[in-house]
Amino acid sequence: MKKILLIIPLVALLSGASFAFAQEAPSEATGPVVVATVNIYDAKIVSQQGNVFSLSFDLSNREGVQPAVRYAVQLIDQNQIVADEVVYPDITNLESHSDVIKNIEYTAPAYLAGTYRLTLVSKNTNGLTLAHASLGEVALSGTDPYVEILPSTCFLQVEGEAGDKKYSLDQGVDIAPSETLDLVCSIKNHSSSALVLQPSFETFYRSVFGASVQTSPQSLTSISVGAGANTTFTFPLPKASAPQAYDVKFSFTNAADIPSNSITAHYVLRGESATIQNLTLDKTSYVAGDTASISLFWTGPASNFFDARTTPEKVSGMQAAVSIVGSAGACGDDTAVALDPQRPTQIVPFSVTRACDSPKVSIRLVDSSGNVLASSTFDFESTTPPDKAGDSTLIYTVLAAAVLVLLYGGWRVFAGRAAAGATLILAGFCILSYGLPVAVHADTFTQDIYLVSSGGWAGSYTVYYDVNMNKSAFVPGETITAAGNVTSAACGNSLQGAINATINGQNKEVFYSIFRDINGVYQIEIRTSSNTFTAESTPGNYFARFYPELHVPTEGPGAGSYFSVNTGGSGCSPNSSRGLGSSTGGGCAGGGMLRDWVGTTPYQMPYTVAVIACTSAANTCGQTSSGTIQPNGSCSATTPANPAGYGNACASTANACGQTNPGTISCSSACSATTPANPAGYGNACTSSANACGQTSSGTLQCNGTCSAAMPPDSTCAAPTCTINASPSSYNAPGSSTLSWTSTNATSFYISSVGYVTAPGSTTVSPSQSTTYNGTVSGPGGGGSCSRTLTVNRSCTFNGQTVTHGNSVTAYREASVPFGSNCQSQTRTCNDGNLTGSFAYSSCSIGAPADCTLDGVTIPHNSSRTFYSQQTAPSGTVCSSLTQSRTCTNGTLSGSDTYRYASCACTPAYTCAGQTIQHTDASCQTSSVTNCPAPLICSSGSPTCVTAPAIQVIDPFEARPSLIIEGDTTFLFWNLDHAVASTCSVTDSNGVVVSQGAASSGPDGVETATIESQTVFTLRCTGEDGEVVTNTVTVNVIPIWVEF
């Protein structure tokens, strides 16, 4: 087997600063290959309100431009089971050496109670793990009812598989497209009501960080579970259509909206596939002539993994087809490069032919048959806000340099060189170290192996490890936390492996997972996920060394397999403490094949130990003291005492009235009290109390709030006056008026017929006769009087009706008159109780008119009725032709006495309406009997159709005169019977129509147009019997004789 050694140099930066330190040269070939350097730092819980957490962290990237970064919050219980996971929709692109601050809110399920570990996880959209960060333990006290899917009881089964094998949810079992994968779990109803639960599935590409995938619709039955009861269910998982690895998130819904937790099952659909694990660029903008360097991390079929149920899929001739489009269009010609299946990481060069910014890279993985096995588009437009991102190294370096210059100047003035030199260097180093951002280093690297499966197949296989430290800079003796994880690159399955770390001479396990039988299901159990170390006591730059391990399980799926590691430095540990060696003794097989591998070439991660300056908590006055950060994270400085006298009582200076305010001595030793303001209004102008007539004198307000002015004596008051008004000043009785009054300098006011009043004032009065109102006033200045007369006009009475003064009423001489006579009226006017005129009646009526009577019928006055001249209509006529309308006026009928019959009857008869026979009955109602078809015709008086007679010439066709002078006209005459008039026409020699549709010319004939020469006129008609008759007449012209 050919081994290819991949060595990618790792450049380590000190806390993002612009200086680096040399990495020790490894003693053997390096196996790990770095594929991502995304970090999470400064992760913290800002606040917690019940189950709602405000979180803050920075996403950071060191090498290359990393697109499609997502993040999630995980809540992990004491059994290391994920109780809740929220993947946020935000997708971030990180430029090289950049970071972006994230402030998010996480709401834990309201039903969870107990202690949990809150963590942050970052992956790309294809599920590649990028970084982890722990936020520490949190306490929840939820009490809400919920439906709990018990994760420890869940497993997957392939329907129909021999032995009823069980697979864990994260094992990633591979299935054929024709197979059905069942999910089996137990649930508990933590509510007081019985529930009907409806299953809910959502499928994601490779992991829950990937895109949602459409699956074929399923018809699943609901399940019922009683209050507080447990039950077990089995549901088939929905399957995607394309071969690949998938996550299926499962939960329940119900009509009562009782929430349920969710679980995630991982499976692989067999078939030819490939995965674009990650893709980075060297920068985010290019100019024409540049070569863009595309770092591609890819893997082959997802079903090619450690403990797969079948032999690996074979793909050959793989190529990566790449295109890049910028904001101005295509950045260059599309390119395609061959992919080496033994090299999951590969650099793809792309020639840039035009300016290219905010590039969007589209990549397709194509096999030798042209099948596209994977495709992705990565948008490298920056999503980092300008005020929250960037490389701050230069800012901090300049700041440190400025401080060094200031310290150097101070040394030159105040101290000797020897003593201050060390102080200057130490202070500058502390400031530089403390001022730089502290990053959590989290790198992802791969390791290639060649696997010989116990299932009888062999193939290349890629494992990726991610390791992280909680910070990159520590104080001497501080606790360092390191963690890691091991995952299958092809399908995203967790693996049985370990990572050991050597930090400050301490060698500890930071990750360890084992494949074991738990409740009859083989699954990965993470025994160790992190460990702690003590930082060096001496400041300096150091490396943490991570040694990856991989182990074949001794039982369950994959047991009995062997592998070789594609690295120049590998170890075989027959006596490994893991207890994973083969039963034949030792962990190695012949020919370099292994069952247990411990890497001897470490992945090295740089970190710094530095003395970091700090300040104490401030005293009440905000004063602090200086110190250094201790290993436990505290500051050695103590809070200084407050200034002498601080807080003691004191008084302000006095105001104009001698008043002061109390206070206390402040941080500046001054009294905090301010001089009180003078009493409100002090020194303002004021007036004395008013005397009996309201007079006052002027003064100013004193400190006690009184006015210095004295009240003037009453002897200065003016004599009182008054006025009385009436509105209206007169009215016709009955009526009313508003009486109003005013006074000046008066203390008493009396009005006759009203009484004592207060001025000003008003009241309504209604005297029946004219009245004078007299007023009397008195006051400090003496007395006075006033008056007002209200004029009242009397009303009149007529027949019990009141007529007011000046108004009139209409009176009549008689109470009634006969019809045709007029009522005589008279206007009578009221004048102060006297009514003019003498007519005594208030109304007059005219007598009723007389009615008329004829032929036993009464006709009311002014009404009309139809009368007939005969009681029986002659044959052929109807009664309506014998009528006259006669009107009654006061007993007299209009019209002729000939029409004296009130009724009329018709004589029954048959008549013609064209060729239709109609019958008129005795009541004059006419109805159609039949329509006569040719040659039959309708004949009046006959109830049946008769044979049509031939045309009868009543008057022959002739011209009068038939001899005319040139330019004159003549008249044509004819009269035919039994001819159909509509068919008759008369034309001249030229075919000009003279007459159309007339069987007779009438007695006056039909005049022709002017005739200039001899003309023959033709009469043509069709008879009722259908025979056509034609007659002609010639008109001759007498020429005009001219004498020469």
By DSSP (H or I, 4+ residues per run), the number of helices equals: 2
Tell me the distance between the termini. Answer: 144 Å
Give helix % range. Answer: under 10%
Describe the biggest sheet? 7 strands, mixed
What structural class do helix, strand and pairing data support?
Answer: mainly beta
Quick synopsis:
With 1044 residues, this protein is mainly beta. 4% of the residues lie in helices and 46% in strands.
Detailed description of the structure:
With 1044 residues, this protein is mainly beta. The protein contains two helices and 79 strands. The strands form 23 sheets. Strands 31, 33, 34, 35, 37, 39 and 40 form a seven-stranded mixed sheet that branches. Strands 1, 29, 30, 32, 36 and 38 form a six-stranded antiparallel sheet that branches. Helix 1 (393-414) runs antiparallel to helix 2 (417-435). It is flat, with a radius of gyration of 61 Å.
